[in-house]
Structure formats: C-alpha cells, structure tokens
Amino acid sequence: MTRKARLIYNPVSGHEQMPKNVADILDVLEQAGYEASAFRTTPAKKSAQNEATRAAKEGFELIVAAGGDGTINEVVNGIAFLENRPKMAIIPAGTTNDYARALGIPRDNILDAAKIILKNKTRKMDIGKAHFGAQDQYFVNIAASGSLTELTYGVPSEIKSALGYAAYLIKGAEMLPHLSENEMRLTYDDGVYEGKLSMFLLGMTNSIGGFEQIMPDAQLSDGLFQLIVVKPSDPVNLMRLMVMALNGKHVDDPNIIYTKTTSLKAELIGKSKGKDLPVNLDGEIGGYCPVSFENLKQRIEFYVGA
Fold it and tell me: Among 14, 26, 27, 218, which is least packed by CB within 10 angstroms?
C-alpha cells in the first residue's frame, strides 16, 4: 500500500524561501517512498493545525512541518490529541528553530533538512500538555511564565546573531527596572514551592532561545520535564544569574530550583491571585494561570538527525 506524506509549509518563513523549495522537497519525499502533496498555510487562525488534523484523520503516515517554531507547534497541536498519530518531520525555516536544533536537523539549508527523512532514523519524542481549564494546548520545547519570561523570547534574532550572550545582557539590563514578582504555588513531583518568584521554565529540550545550556540535563524521551524556578532577587544578583544561565552554571545557585518532574501545577496565590499572568508555550502565549502540565512520554515519532 502506498504511504502518503503531507508537507505543511509556511510561505513567509525564512525570508519566503519555502515556496521555491516545495517541488524539491516533494521529490525527496517521493524518494523516501511516500506519495507526497503540499499544503500552503494561510493567515487564517490555526491554518497549519487544522490541516494537520485533517491529514492525520485521512490516513497520512507522515506530516512534514516546514516553518518556524510556531508552525511546528501548530502541527503538533493538530495531531497530539489523536489516538492514531502520523510520524512528523521538521524543515526549519524560521529564526530561532529551537526544536530543530534539539533534534539535530540542519538549520541552514532547507533541502538538507528534508533529506534527513532519507536516512530513516526516527525517535519517539515527549510532548508537553498544558491544561487551562476546559482548554488543552500542546508544546514541544518550553513552557514559561513570570516577569523574566520576556527575556527568553524578547531579543530579536538578528540582534542575537550579531551580539550573542551580550544581546541577552542588554535586554536584561533594560528589563530590570520594570521587573515584578508573582506569588505562586508550584506543585511538582518532589514537592511544593510557595512564595514569590521571578519566573518558572518547564523545558522539554536543552535549546531555549538559541542557547543550549539553560536546561543542561534535558532528555528528549524520558517522560520528564526540566523545571527551573527563579526565586526573587535584587537586580544585580539577577544579572549574575543571567550570565550563569547562558553558560549552564546556574543550576546549583541557591536562588534557583532545578529539578525533573512528570507534571506541574502552577497557580497564583496571596496578593497575586486574580492577576492575568500569561503562560508562554513554544514562544507564543498559550493561556493564563492557573495551569497544569503533563508530560506525554514518547507521544509523537519524529525523524531526527545526528
């Protein structure tokens, strides 16, 4: 029986490089033994997500998500809840491409990324599930909340490329006078943290914002999140922590909680209760606290590189 693959691509990702590469990508999929077709996403809300759900329900064995981290997140949200899920492949065409970095997918050449499929190496990957009341959202890389969260995603990619670590330090210095703390209760496998905090990060991989040392012990298929809680601190100490985090030396600091957990419940308490505190999922706002997270162990099978 012929296997079917569906390419779902964002035409404006990667300086609009995707459209001119579609025919070559489909040829690679044909070489891999798939009957291949393509879907060009539109500005409509959940365009990639809805197409991924449709393709999965119609029996496509492979969905290729081509675009930035947002496109990948949408496709994952389109299939993660299904009982019968197709395999996924990633063609990074965005700016940061954190998840592609974690999977060892080439990030500087669209066609080289597609040719990873020809090597036929796959791995079942953990997927995060965030529960906001009656709404569920899925993520593949990072969930975060708190006043420091903007630092992770608020630095433009072109500035990161030019300045590296310095870009984060400049952004951090800009933010420090405006930082606020939230009083929260975090319930995780090994305990409960109650009190003020600057931020929590729940990671699936070791790549966040283009850096690979923030979650130094991340595994991709062990069913565990990496949880980092940044306790309140004075501005000078926060700058020190930023420098340490970008070099992977922050996890033993007394102002940091670093642990592994299968789940997390995050809720506002005390004077912070009732605030609209957003929760960032893979770089976009997914909802607002309170929220509970569950690790779906080895939920989706991905083609992977080295």
Answer: 27
CA angle, 77 as apex, 189 and 29 as ends, to 5°? 120
Report the C-alpha dihedral over residues 113, 223, 82, 60, rounded to 10 degrees.
30
> pLDDT for 168-181, tens place per residue?
455 555 655 556 78
CB-CB neighbours of 58 under 10 Å: 10
Count of positions (residues) in the chain: 306
Q: Is 183 within 8 Å of 196 (Cβ atoms)?
A: yes
Domains along the chain with CATH numbers: 3-120 (3.40.50.10330), 139-297 (2.60.200.40)
The pLDDT tens digits of the residues spanning 33-70 come to: 999 999 999 999 999 999 999 999 999 999 999 998 88
What is the rounded (10 degree) CA torsion for 122, 31, 10, 53? -60
- pLDDT bin (cut points 50, 70, 90) of residue 216 is low
In the predicted structure, residue 215 carries a pLDDT above the cut 90: no
C-alpha to C-alpha distance for 20 and 9, rounded to whole angstroms: 11
Alpha-carbon distance of 260 to 272, in angstroms, equals 26
Active-site residue set: 284
- φ and ψ at residue 78, rounded to 5 degrees: -80, -15
Q: In Å, how far are 66, 80, 84 from 56, measured between CA atoms?
A: 16, 10, 8
Is residue 156 predicted with pLDDT exceeding 60? no
Got the DSSP string for 240-291?
HHHHHHHTT--TTSTTEEEEEESEEEEEE-GGGTT---EEEETTEEEEESSE
**How far is the C-alpha of 279 from the C-alpha of 256, rounded, in Å?**
20
Other beta carbons within 10 Å of 84: 8
More confident residue, 217 or 160: 217
